[in-house]
């Protein structure tokens, strides 16, 4: 596994100020597991407050604009996220690709803008159910990577890739451990082909219906360097169990 296991919670469009109590509890739990790197991506409205409330975890955005500033009503740039205290940003989540029509080219531009602003990037890729059923999952995912991986000398250094099969997100369904391993190996091969040596150190996270019950199994699959967790990151209880599972595996390794 490349580096510490990286367990990231994606709160999506959830998170009032009252939920900062969960973030504080997650932060306390994370400090008990120094062998795991923990982060949360709350809505933009909570980034700064979470940064202040939680000292031991990473805090990030869920999207960013490609420009640093300007007349883009409703958008948030990577520079603004960094100013609010964010360490990283998620780009190319399937909900952005599907609901906002984001292309690979746009996702690449966002990843490059984020890195230029000093943020780490979690770049999401994943196939639909129809694409998996037709046997095209690996081609779809490697094509997404070819189109959206950031370019540039330092691109691999501040990058994680999250493999999130669209059909597994929020559904309670997960791929087999063998399928996760096969896809992660294909992603690793693409990263090494793109970045050379540096591509071997990029962490590849699995995402899609990760919970306390399946985390150990999924995190133990080939080339899985962590998890991107939606629903099960909304409470400290559920998320801490996943962090604990990652810690237990890291100790065995
Ligand atoms: P889920 O979401 O864990 O609720 O399936 C994962 C994600 O979309 O990042």
Q: How are the SSEs placed, and which strands pair?
A:
Elements: E1 6-10, H1 20-32, E2 37-41, H2 44-53, E3 58-61, H3 78-83, E4 88-91, H4 94-99, H5 104-116, E5 120-125, H6 129-133, H7 137-148, E6 159-163, H8 177-195, E7 203-207, H9 215-219, E8 226-229, H10 236-252
Parallel strand pairs: 1-2, 1-8, 2-3, 3-4, 4-5, 5-6, 6-7, 7-8
Helix pairs in contact: 1-10, 5-7, 7-8
This protein binds 2-phosphoglycolic acid.
| Helical/strand content category | alpha/beta
Percentage of residues in strands: 15-25%
* Order of SSEs: EHEHEHEHHEHHEHEHEH
| N-C termini distance | 9 Å
Mean pLDDT: 97
Shape descriptor: globular
Low-confidence stretches: none
Radius of gyration: 17 Å
Q: How would a textbook summarize the main sheet? A: 8 strands, parallel, barrel
How many beta-strand runs? 8
Q: Give the names of the bound compounds.
A: 2-phosphoglycolic acid
Task: Count the DSSP helices.
Answer: 10
Sheet with the most strands: spatial strand order:
1-2-3-4-5-6-7-8
């Amino acid at each position: 596994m490349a580096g510490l296991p990286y367990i990231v919670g994606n709160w999506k469009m959830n998170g009032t100020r009252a939920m900062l109590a969960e973030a504080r509890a997650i932060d306390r739990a994370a400090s008990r597991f120094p062998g795991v790197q923990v982060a949360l991506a709350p809505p933009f409205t909570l980034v700064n407050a979470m940064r202040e409330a939680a000292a031991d975890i990473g805090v990030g955005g869920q999207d960013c604009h490609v420009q640093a500033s300007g007349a883009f009503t409703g958008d948030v740039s990577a520079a603004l996220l960094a100013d609010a205290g964010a360490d990283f940003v998620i780009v190319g989540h399937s909900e952005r690709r599907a609901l906002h029509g984001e292309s690979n080219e746009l996702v690449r531009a966002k990843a490059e803008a984020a890195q230029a602003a000093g943020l780490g990037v979690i770049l999401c890729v994943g196939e639909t159910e129809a694409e998996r059923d037709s046997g095209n999952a690996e081609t779809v995912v490697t094509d997404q990577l070819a189109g959206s991986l950031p370019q540039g000398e330092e691109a691999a250094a501040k990058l994680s890739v999250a493999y999130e099969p669209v059909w597994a997100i929020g559904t309670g369904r997960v791929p087999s451990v063998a399928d996760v391993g096969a896809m992660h190996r294909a992603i690793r091969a693409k990263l090494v082909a793109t970045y050379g040596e540096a591509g071997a150190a990029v962490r590849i996270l699995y995402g899609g219906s990760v919970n306390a019950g399946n985390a150990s199994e999924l995190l133990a699959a080939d080339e899985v360097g962590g998890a991107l967790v939606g629903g099960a990151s909304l409470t400290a209880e559920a998320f801490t169990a996943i962090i604990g599972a990652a810690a237990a595996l890291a100790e065995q390794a």
